[in-house]
Structure formats: C-alpha cells, structure tokens
Design a protein that fits this description.
The protein has 463 residues and is of the alpha/beta class. The chain has helices spanning 17-33, 50-64, 69-78, 89-99, 116-125, 144-157, 173-184, 214-239, 248-261, 390-400, 409-419, and strands at residues 8-12, 40-44, 79-83, 105-109, 133-137, 163-166, 197-205, 270-275, 293-298, 310-315, 322-329, 347-353, 356-365, 373-382, 429-432. The longest helix is centred in the middle third of the chain and has 26 residues, at 214-239.
C-alpha cells in the first residue's frame, strides 16, 4: 500500500472530452483552493505540444465559470505534456523523464478501457509503477466477465489498495449526506426498515438527450451508464447498516454486504425505453436496440429489507432534470380520521440534484370543526454554493490516498452480478416521446396500488 501523498499527477487522455469537461476545472479548483503544487503531466497521442495543451486548459476553465489569470498562471506553471502512442515504450521513457524526481506519482486513465492494458504494462516496463497509484474512470467493463478481466489486467501491475475507481456520484455532497442524514440522526433508525417502509423509489431524470455522445451511448445504454454504478451506489447508501467505524475499510465492508444481498434483476421486472429521435443522432444505428430509459424493481434479501421493493428509474429526454429518492412509509394501522384511506402516506423526499433538499411528507389538520387533514411537507434546503465539485473532491482524495469514496473490485463485480441478467439482450426497447416519463409500460413496474412519484420543479424558499 502506498502511504505517502502523490507527488506528480499524470493523466492519460489529456486532449479528450473528460479532461476538458471535468479534469482541468477540477485541477484549477484545487490550485485555487491552495496547497496543490505537484507537477501535472498530460499524456495523449494527438501530435500536440505543451502550448496547445495550455490553450485547451484555459478554454476549458474559462468555459466552466470563474477564471482568474493569476490562478491559471499557477496551474499553467505546473503543466507538462508528453505526446506518444501508449503501445510504444518510447512514450513511457519520455514520461519517466517528465516525472523527474517524483517518487510516488498518481496516474489517471481518462481513456477507453481497451487501452488500459497497454498503459499499465508501459508503466511497469519503464519502472514508473513502483509506489504509484492509479485512478480509473467508469465504465469498469461492460458486464461481469469483462469487469473481472479488467481487474485482472490492473492487478498484474497495481495492488487493489492503490487503485481508485471513480464513480463521481460518490463525490457529490448530497449523496454523502444520505449517509450522514441516516446515521447522524436518532429518529430515522427505528423506522428505517421493512416494518415501516413500504417502498423506496429513485428517479434520475434528465431533460436532455445524448448531447452528441451517440457513439458512446450506443456502447452503454442507461443501465450500464447510470444504473449499474451511480444508482446502485445510492441504493447501497440508503440500505446499508451502520458501520462500526467510519474508516474506509469498515464502510466498504458494509456496502459490499448490501451489494451481495441484491438479487440479480429479473427481466420481467425491467422495462427498457428509447426516446423517439435517438436513432437519428450521429453515431447511432438506425435500428439501435440501446435503451435511453430504464425502470426496474430491485430486491434486497436482508433481514431489514426483505419484501421492500426498491424502484429505480432513469432516462434521457424526460420532463425535468432531477435526481430524487422517495422513501414511502406504511400507513398507520387504523385510519381513525379518514376512513376512506384517500390521504397520502408519510414519506421522506431526498432531492440529490440539481438542488439539495430533504422533505418530510406528513398530514396535518385543516382549520375547522371537522377532523379533516391535508398533506404538508417539512423542508430542509441545503445551500451548496461553496461545494467542491465531485471531481475536485475525488481527485484530491486520491492524491492523498484516501479510498473512502472510491469503489473496489468486489463491489463493482457484485454490481455487475445484479444487472448481468438483463444485459444479454432479448428485452425489447419501447419507444417513448421526448419530454414524457418514458414508456407507459414503466407504470407496471410499481405495484401494490402505488405509482411512480415524478420529481417536480423545486419551489424556492419563501423570502
Ligand atoms: C454520467 C453519465 O456518468 O453521469 C451521463 O455518463 C449522465 O450520461 C451523468 O448524464 C449525470 O451526472 P450528473 O453529475 O450530471 O448528474
């Protein structure tokens, strides 16, 4: 296990999309916050030079928001660039020179998984992998078998404790707050189980399409893109037991226990949809069978959650952009005031993005002589303006060697085991109109007289 803080940051794929959208802004924010002074080496096979990389970094950061010339100058002074083929040992010789006296570098593979093996072997052969850490991006494979193969490749050179698999959802404040809210409060734990909770719904809706990423989306689809990773991670934070400590190992063990208790999905409890117009996107096949929407029911076979359905729904081109968890409680044993049973159940609503909101749905008496009530919602809003972006948070943690917010090989493989039965094909994709909540068939996933709760535009607090 590498103990010291990393003393050089090397990222492969420096001229790519991820570097432009996320990595440069995160590095800039780290420099801006102070305390980040290590050399930053961009790697690519693009025929670029350092000036061109700096221009790209400037453009990315200006595009992302606040830009200060003095801070950019500090970042720019740390930047180096190495151009070359990842299969060519000469590229790694150049990298070794660029690393200079660094003793414990961190390598970020912001490149397609098909190139991972050339890069890790290149690092090993040039002697650059000793005492080093590795950051890898999702997707970690396409299914269980390919994820296991990928892990074997990485483990040939890096120990598991030196591998940092990024799931940027885990770097979000609102997602970390799920854990905090559950275990820092006393009032939740007594009711956070099958005795009181009827079902849990998680909706990740995006009001936009594939935004020019048609070719990428054709390789993944919604289930691989956001369900196998982001949303199963959210489920785990909602479902896990309290860890006996907050060190990374104990936390990871509790999460893994839940992943292992998730029942592999039953194709009969999954609906796949595709928005009309997807097949006209550039890079998308005219007869594409890739889903841009998925709705499914997940079961977790533990003492706490037996028979409590976890409903997951995610899609592109839905009516709103919002990710929300809704935990619906069972009704009181007797309906004393409203025998018609028409009033809604109590619930917790946890809005994870774009706003951070916790709502508690309750019933309160209406003014008047009758014992009649109305639904009310108690709301706590979180102002997240000074929040670090998930990438800033996660890259900083990786450089310091803190593995708490990263996923391990066993967790990733357990998550693939859950979704594997529905990846093989055979489940139809049902068309839906952009701007709707997916195909009508998705309604059937939710049973017991329940319906999907569609996230609404969040009203801001009264002044
Ligand atoms: C990414 C997916 O991992 O997460 C995208 O590839 C998706 O398709 C994105 O839009 C959503 O993340 P966020 O942080 O923008 O909600």
């Amino acid at each position: 296990m590498v103990k010291m803080e990393s003393d050089a940051f090397v990222f492969f794929g420096a001229t790519g999309d991820l570097a432009y959208k996320k990595i440069f802004p995160a590095l800039y924010a780290m420099v801006h916050r102070g305390g980040f002074h290590i050399p930053i080496i961009g790697m690519a096979r693009a025929g670029w030079d350092l000036d061109r990389l700096k221009a790209r970094a400037r453009d990315s950061i200006e595009h992302n928001g606040d830009f200060e010339e003095a801070c950019f100058a500090k970042l720019s002074a740390l930047l180096r660039y190495v151009d070359g083929d990842y299969a060519d040992p000469a590229t790694f010789v150049q990298l070794k020179t660029a690393l200079g006296l660094a003793k414990s570098p961190i390598y970020y593979l912001a490149i397609p998984p098909s190139m991972f093996s050339s890069v890790v072997r290149g690092l090993q052969q040039c002697g650059c992998a000793t005492n080093a850490r590795l950051i890898v991006e999702k997707p970690f494979g396409r299914d269980l078998a390919s994820a296991q193969a990928l892990d074997r490749t990485l483990h040939e050179v890096f120990e598991e404790s030196s591998i940092f698999r990024i799931d940027h959802y885990l770097g979000k404040e609102a997602v970390q707050n799920l854990l905090y809210f559950r275990f820092a409060n006393t009032f939740l734990e007594p009711i956070w189980n099958r005795e009181y909770i009827r079902d849990i719904q998680i909706t990740m809706a995006e009001s936009f399409g594939v935004q020019g990423r048609g070719a990428f989306y054709e390789e993944v689809g919604t289930i691989r893109d956001v369900v196998q990773n982001h949303l199963l991670q959210v489920v785990t934070l909602l479902a896990m037991d309290a860890p006996a400590g907050h060190d990374s190992k104990t936390m990871q063990a509790e999460k893994l226990r839940i992943f292992r208790a998730m029942r592999p999905l039953d194709p009969k409890e999954v609906v796949r949809g595709q928005f009309r117009g997807y097949r006209d996107e550039s890079g998308v096949a005219k007869d594409s069978q890739i889903e841009t929407f998925a709705a499914l029911r997940l079961r977790i076979d533990t003492w706490r959650w037996a028979d409590v359905p976890f409903y997951i729904r995610a899609g592109k081109n839905l009516p709103i952009t919002a990710t929300e968890v809704r935990v619906t409680l069972r009704r009181p044993p007797l309906a004393i005031f409203d025998p018609s049973d028409a009033m809604p159940s109590n619930y917790f609503r946890l809005r994870l993005s774009p706003e951070v909101v916790i709502g508690e749905g309750a019933l309160a008496k209406l003014n008047g002589e009758d014992m009649r009530g109305e639904p009310v919602e108690l709301i706590a809003r979180h102002n997240s303006q000074s929040e670090k972006s998930p990438y800033e948070r996660l890259l900083g943690d990786a450089v310091r060697g803190d593995t708490s917010l990263f996923t391990q090989d066993e967790t990733v493989e357990a998550a693939w085991r859950v979704v594997d039965p529905i990846l093989a094909g055979g489940l139809p994709v049902i068309p839906y109109e952009p701007g709707t909540w997916g195909p009508d068939a998705a309604a059937k996933i939710v049973d017991g007289g329940e319906t999907w709760h569609d996230p609404q535009v969040e009203r801001s607090s009264p002044c």
